[in-house]
Amino acid sequence: MTERVIHLKDFFEEARAGRLTGIRCGHCGALAIPPKELCEQCHQRQWQPVPLEGAGTVVSFTVIRVAPRGRSAEVPYAVAVVRLTEGVSLLGRVVDIPFDALKAGLPVRFRPIELDGRTAIGFGPA
Amino acid sequence: MRRVAVIGVGVTKFGKHDRTSAELFAQAAADAILDADIAPTSIQALYFGNVTGGETERQLHMAPLAATLLGLPTIPTTRFENACATSHVAFRHAVMEIASGVSDVVLVGGAERVLNVPTESATEFFAYCSDASLEQPAGLTFPGVFALVARAHMDKYGTTEEQMAHVAVKNHRHGTLNPKAQFQKEISLETVLKSAYVADPLKLFDCCPFTDGGAALVLASEEVARKHRKPIWVLGSHAATDTMFVHEKRDLSRVTATERAAQGAYRQAGKTPADVDVVELHDCFTIAEIVATEGLGFFEPGTGGLAAEKGWTSLGGKLPVNPSGGLKAKGHPIGATGAAQIAEIVTQLRGEAGKRQVEGASTGLTHTLGGNTATVLVSLFGRD
Asked: Chain B residues within 8 A (CB-CB) of chain A?
């Protein structure tokens, strides 16, 4: 394969429709979040897109109370690194989960959200 | 490869300035040239660092501008940008230019000015150093990145907010001994613990400030350096990179790039962590100092918090860390920080650090981290 099978634009278009997409290396089987050219493990270029279920658990999280310019209306908000059941992790905005319920290991589920005029990765209750 | 020495250092006062970044660098550079006591015409190149000039000052192409303001408008110049590690990256490249024999004398450093824009703008510009596709849209900020690290370290090792607060108290105490520090006032543990959360579990006093400032170093080959008063030798300088994506970090409680950069620098220098007498490391947040003291091999993983609590990293302790006050109290003009840390270690190894002098220090280490723990530089220094 001479071309990346999924670009950022495609990743977010799929995500907006509720479909989280990963890429799997056809040579060594490693799973990654796109976009990537070479596999970090075997350095081959044989990616295939794979649907991700969107279920996972919180690895680490924070509640952000000082936001970048133009986004102060969003605070406070939580951001978490989530390990998906397929084995890859993804960072996203936490939605519809009380801050005091957040902890490592909490099950969550992917959902697309619109933030700052763009599609962003969100995680809500499992 | 030829040996390289630092023969001149210059650092502006850190804090708020009415001068531009290029002016701040030129001022520090003139001080460094005077300190080196060399003819300005002997300088053969400028390696210059700045991060946010395009956003905060509408100024790009700042390296030749800095050379022009310094009064050396015809030397070759290069601008570096690797987030908060910027001028340490520039330093390593300047070392290589001399070690390889291309040049004998090189000027290196950087400057930053951000206090001319509102805090939320500075927060936004710094966040540009994280990934713009996945991380910025989710609202991740720099305190947010280190909050994720802090939470992981707390969950894995039981590190406490109080232990993190000890880092802030210690570095502010050190800052009172540094006339160039942005903050020169002691703070109490209670002040830190009662300050407002910025990104849980990090509070305002766990975070370094926004800062304007410049720093410069004159580097020279051994032949040139031997003619000068106290050359401080570069024993090793190593760079390591890790994935930009926070979600790809294998263990959020560690900064693996710090570990790899340190191993490379120790190997080059023929030194071990036990040989190090004084350290300037990247305490952009209190947790960052704790994790760095572990990654640099000074304390076992998980015990960096205890080291802070017990005072092992204070002036007078087992291993003084950040005698300058660190990024936390001295301030963090991101394009200048790496060079300013080296300037402090050079000053310490010369025995000219005054009230904050680590007595008898003969080997020093600097550690600078950029962005989402993606860029890390570690350098080791020694005296004759």
From this structure: 118-121, 123-124, 127, 133-141, 143-144, 147-149, 151-152, 155, 196-202, 245-249, 252
